[in-house]
Each structure stands twice: as structure tokens, then as C-alpha cells.
Design a protein that fits this description.
alpha+beta, 442 residues, 3-stranded antiparallel β-sheet, single chain
Length: 442
């Protein structure tokens, strides 16, 4: 991965009808904001909880920042996921969604459709994420985790994003999809371009998406002739048995499972590890709990890390299908709406001491994986990977520490996701605890 800082995001374009920012409002979408967006979100929660703004791309959208409004918006059927409902101007055309997915015919996936198509596709894919299937996958996740740590444990230092948090979910989701091992490094390269989209050229992202689309089409043909016990083969079997899954739908589903299934977990592991390094008291509590063979603090702790500094800053795009009122503001038909999960999950009206990391927090109905019919399908797998990664890091690298100053770290300047570009760490070369023989508990 490219470790150099990405260029500063461009300022929102001046449009004739761009909304005026309220007096005293903090500036959004700068690198200073990306480093710590929570004070700005606190201001908007208090003063303008539903706020229309111009995004760095120039597209105008409503930002929803309070927990109650956010939960309502996530479950509101009048807020469609289908981009066809966006009353977009020529200036905005093509600037929402994932770069390159339109040209690569990858739009027909769970993040872009509404019922009944959403219901049909979700039913097909959900079979891969049952508790039984996820539990069966746990040994493989542990094997991947230990293998990646083995690669850098003797060095005494690592970039936990590049060396660990990034490859772990890529290889895991490739295994789940049925991508042959000899092809998985190609997926890692394509995903590397996609995860750098905040600072990389959108054209580069589009090229990676196109290559991935071509590969998936070829893989689907191969799986149809020689199916296995993997997700792509399952989608093909469902299609052959009358579920009416087109090839484009199958490729789009595989694409979005890869895209949504890796970057969220990269950020969960990276942000979660960073939070523990910055809160030694909480880390010590977790280490003591794990040493005692307990799992309760690990389970509540992962949910708290998701709430405190989760991997998804804003839920993916929604578009009003009719005029509606949200948080006292009138949303016009066709307007884009972005629910700011990072702001909602720090709302003091819902969470006690929301800016405090408390791994034992019980009343924690965070929105980190969404809410309603679009609740993240892969959440059980992401939790497994997050718990396994954090547990194994703490057990095998007990003296893990940040290498450098927190102020030197850079965050990827995207819109939807929130994650570190790098996480340099140091530790005593070698591992006091060799292989982890106890998988994480969901």
C-alpha cells in the first residue's frame, strides 16, 4: 500500500444553489476533520442535527447526526437505496456510490436495491452467514491471523494496517467466495486500489473494479462447470434452481461482499487496536479478562469499539422517493440523505458518557452495522474476524505499542468509511505466546 499522505480533499464546489453553512459551523471534510470528526459532529447534533451541505465532490446531501433521527432514517422505506431515485444534476451524475460500479454493470447488489429484489437477494446470500457457517469458518480465520503475525513477529515492528488488518479480511472473504488461493493476491491488489480511493485517482479505482468484474464473470463460468462448497457456487445453484439470479446479479453480489466485507473489517481491526493502544486502562482490563479465560468483556468490548470509533462513518447513500420531514427539516423528493453513524453513536441523548471508551458498556445498541432491512449481513463474520484479530494480537504481542506520535497518523479521506492509512507499532521480537489455540468467542 502507498504509505504517503493522500492529497487534501478538494473543497466542495461552488454551486448556484449550494446551501449556506450555518453561522459558527465547523468546517467539514478537511484533513483536520478526518483526524477527529467528533467535535464537529457534536456541534451539528446540537445546532443543526439534519443539515444540508455540499460534499467534496460537489454533490449536495442531507447529513443526519442524532441517534433518534438516524435510526428512523435507516428504517424509513421512503429513503430508497436505488440510485435511480436520485434527482441528480449533470454535475452530480456518477458521483455517488462506489466509483466504477456503474460502468462495470455492478449496480444490482444489496446496497443499491429495495424490496422485493433486496429481499430475494438477501435471502440467497444470508445462508453464507448463519451462526453455524460462521462458527465453521472460525478455525480458518484463526489460521490466517496467526500466519500473518508469523510473517512479522520476529521483526519487532510492523504496520498493522498493511501487514495485518488489510490482508486478513481479504483472504478470509476470498476463501468464503471461493476465489482460488493462486488468484487471491490479485484481489488484494485490486482491493488495495479501492481502499485508497480517498487519495487515489478515481480512474484507478474504476480500472480495478473493471478488472474485478471481468475476473468474477470468468469465475462464475468456472464455478458453474465445477461448483464447490463456497458462496459463489451457492449463488449459482440458487440461480439454477429458479431463484432468478442473473449473471450480473451474481457478479455484483460477489463484488459487494468483497468490497463491503473487507474495508469495514480493515477499519474495525485498525481503529479498534488504535483505541486500545490509546486507552491502556481498558486494554489492561481486556488482557486480564482474556488471561482468565473469559469472553464476556471481549464481546461487549468489540461492540464498544464499533460504537466509539467504528469502521463506517456514514451509512451508504439513500434517496428520498417523496417529500418527507426528518429532524424538523423538509427533505425533497430525489434528495440524497447520508446517515452519519459516527455522530449518532456518540449522541449523549442515547449513550452515557459517549466520548468515553468503556469496554464493559452494556446498553450499547450502536448503529455501527446499520439498522432495519439493510443491517449488515456480514456482521457475524466481521465480529469473528475482529475478535480473533484483537485477541491474538494481545496474546502474542503483549508489549504491543504505538511507534511514533498519534498526531503523525493519517486517516483515509473518504466519505463512507473511517480508517487509518497506517498504524506503525513496535514490540519485542518473537512472541511469548506462540500459536493461539483458542479461537475467539462470538
Amino acid at each position: 500500500m502507498n504509505d504517503s499522505p493522500a492529497p487534501r480533499p478538494s473543497e466542495p464546489s461552488a454551486c448556484p444553489h449550494s446551501p449556506a453553512e450555518p453561522h459558527g459551523a465547523p468546517e467539514l471534510f478537511t484533513w483536520e476533520f478526518a483526524t477527529d470528526p467528533y467535535p464537529a459532529y457534536a456541534w451539528f447534533r446540537e445546532h443543526r442535527p439534519v443539515h444540508r451541505t455540499a460534499l467534496p465532490s460537489g454533490v449536495e446531501a442531507w447529513l443526519v447526526t442524532r441517534y433518534g433521527d438516524a435510526r428512523e432514517a435507516l428504517a424509513d422505506a421512503r429513503l430508497s437505496k436505488n440510485p435511480a431515485n436520485h434527482a441528480e444534476s449533470p454535475h452530480a451524475k456518477g458521483k455517488t456510490g462506489i466509483p466504477g460500479e456503474r460502468k462495470a454493470e455492478l449496480m444490482t447488489h444489496l446496497l443499491n436495491i429495495d424490496p422485493p429484489d433486496h429481499t430475494r437477494l438477501r435471502r440467497l446470500v444470508s445462508k453464507a452467514f448463519t451462526p453455524r457457517r460462521v462458527a465453521e469458518f472460525a478455525p480458518r480465520v484463526q489460521e490466517l491471523t496467526d500466519r500473518l503475525i508469523d510473517d512479522f513477529v520476529e521483526k519487532g515492528s510492523a504496520d498493522l494496517i498493511h501487514d495485518f488488518a488489510f490482508p486478513l479480511p481479504i483472504y478470509a472473504i476470498c476463501d468464503l467466495l471461493g476465489v482460488p488461493e493462486e488468484d487471491q493476491d490479485d484481489f488484494r491488489d485490486w482491493a488495495g486500489m479501492m481502499i485508497r480511493h480517498g487519495g487515489g485517482p478515481r480512474g484507478g479505482v474504476a480500472r480495478s473494479v473493471k478488472k474485478m468484474r471481468g475476473y468474477l464473470a470468468e469465475l462464475i463460468h468456472r464455478k458453474r462447470e465445477n461448483p464447490g462448497d463456497d458462496l459463489i457456487s451457492g449463488l449459482i445453484r440458487a440461480s439454477d434452481h429458479g431463484e432468478h439470479l442473473t449473471e450480473n446479479e451474481a457478479a455484483a453480489m460477489a463484488f459487494i461482499l468483497l468490497f463491503a466485507g473487507f474495508e469495514t473489517t480493515v477499519n474495525l481491526i485498525g481503529n479498534g487496536t488504535y483505541a486500545l493502544l490509546r486507552h491502556p486502562g481498558q486494554r489492561a482490563r481486556l488482557e486480564a479478562s482474556l488471561a482468565a479465560g473469559e469472553s464476556a468483556l471481549l464481546a461487549t468490548g468489540l461492540e464498544e469499539l464499533l460504537r466509539f470509533d467504528g469502521p463506517v462513518e456514514m451509512a451508504t447513500w439513500r434517496y428520498a422517493t417523496e417529500a418527507l420531514t426528518l429532524g424538523g427539516e423538509e427533505i425533497a423528493a430525489g434528495d440524497p440523505v447520508l446517515v452519519v453513524l459516527a455522530a449518532a453513536d456518540r449522541d449523549p441523548e442515547r449513550f452515557t458518557d459517549p466520548d468515553t471508551l468503556d469496554l464493559a458498556r452494556r446498553d450499547n445498541q450502536h448503529l455501527g452495522y446499520g439498522h432495519g432491512i439493510h443491517y449488515c449481513l456480514g456482521a457475524p463474520l466481521a465480529r469473528l474476524e475482529g475478535q480473533t484479530a484483537l485477541t491474538t494480537l494481545l496474546r502474542r504481542l503483549p508489549d504491543l505499542r504505538l511507534a511514533g506520535e498519534p498526531g503523525d497518523l493519517r486517516w483515509r479521506g473518504g466519505l463512507i468509511m473511517r480508517g487509518l492509512r497506517t498504524l506503525p507499532v513496535a514490540f519485542e521480537p518473537g512472541s511469548r505466546t506462540r500459536k493461539s489455540d483458542t479461537p475467539s468467542t462470538l
